[in-house]
Amino acid sequence: MMAWVRCSSSLRYLAREERARFVLTRPFHSTSLRLYSAPPSLPVPLSRLADSFLDGTSSVYLEGLQRAWEADPRSVDEPWDTFRCFAGDPSSSSSSPGISGQTIQESMQLLLLVHAYQVNGHLKAKLDPLGLEPREIPEDLDIRSYGFTEADLDREFFIGVWRMSGFLSENRPVQTLREILSRFERAYCGTIGYEYMHIPDGERCNWLREKIETVEPPEYGRERRQVILDRLIWSTRFENFLATKWTAVKRFGLEGAETMIPGMKEMLDRVAISGWRAL
Questions:
Q1: pLDDT per residue over 214-254, tens digit each?
Q2: 48, 104, 149, 199: which has the fewest C-beta neighbours closer than 10 Å?
Q3: CA-wise closest residue to 238 among 251, 223, 225
Q4: For the purposes of burial, counting CB atoms within 10 Å of the CB of 187, is it exposed (0-12), middle (13-18) or buried (19 or more)?
Q5: How many of the other CB atoms lie within 10 Å of CB of 213?
């Protein structure tokens, strides 16, 4: 009887060893080693998940598009064909040597710089004539944010874009980076600020862009500025007169619309000069 018990214990011991050996030598399966699975991964900040098309991988893709265009311009999509200046036109390569070194990545960076002026240029506008209010210049208006340096200011670039208006239209001439920046500084960072890129209608944006970027602002002489100042003072005094004469009457102030009266007076002057008898 004791021999039988010792034999049974030995068999159970051998069976346990065999099962342990089978578990350790069998192919890995998530259900068999559930207790030994890896700990859950920690959350990753969104800033590390951001993917920029200006990284090394995308630059390889853009350079591949350039080489494909050089081999056959019809092998790339039509919007990419607007960058035909990158490789240069063989029939006119001698007339435009300044942009021979322009890459697709530089052109995309320049387009981002132009878009930054269109979106945030009004934040740099000189709206305080006395210069009392400090201004914070957005970082995306700095050429260094796009990989450009002072040495690139005299390089020539072409930034024509398919089906765009204003400064980005296809028929724009080749210009240096200094000339491009000077034009956008005058258009968006002068004494008038424009904020229109939030408009969802592309046709309206193109119309405004054409008027803002291509039409030169009028230059007024000293006498003309004195006339405008006199009319601004007149409009302010007229508002003070109404406030003093009818103190108990509800009315709307002129704050923010002081230029409306000089504008209406200018319109009447133009109508009178044109010979109109009634308006």
A1: 877 778 889 988 988 899 898 888 888 888 888 888 877 77
A2: 48
A3: 251
A4: buried
A5: 22
Gap between the Cα atoms of 160 and 65, Å rounded: 17
**b/e per residue 151-174 (b: at least 16 CB within 10 A):** ebeeebbbbbbeebbbbbbeebeb
Residues 240 and 206 placed together within one structural domain of the fold: no
Residues 252 and 118 in one domain: no
Q: Is the dihedral of CA 269, 273, 277, 279 positive or negative?
A: negative
Do 198 and 70 have their domain in common? Answer: yes
Domain count along the chain: 2
39: in domain = no
Same domain, 234 and 162: no
Q: Which two tokens stand for residue 211?
A: 């008027």
Q: Two tokens at 91?
A: 């029939």
- The Cα–Cα gap between 98 and 156 comes to 5
* Domain encompassing residue 240: 222-274
Q: Examine residue 26 and state whether it is found in any structural domain, yes or no.
A: no
Judge if 136 and 251 occupy the same domain. no
Q: Could you tell me if 207 and 129 lie in one domain?
A: yes
Which percentage of the chain shows pLDDT scores above 70? 66
Same domain, yes or no, for 92 and 145? yes
Neighbours of 106 (CB within 10 A): 19
Angle at 128 between CA 122 and CA 131, to 5 degrees: 120
Q: Across the strands, what pairs with 175? A: 157
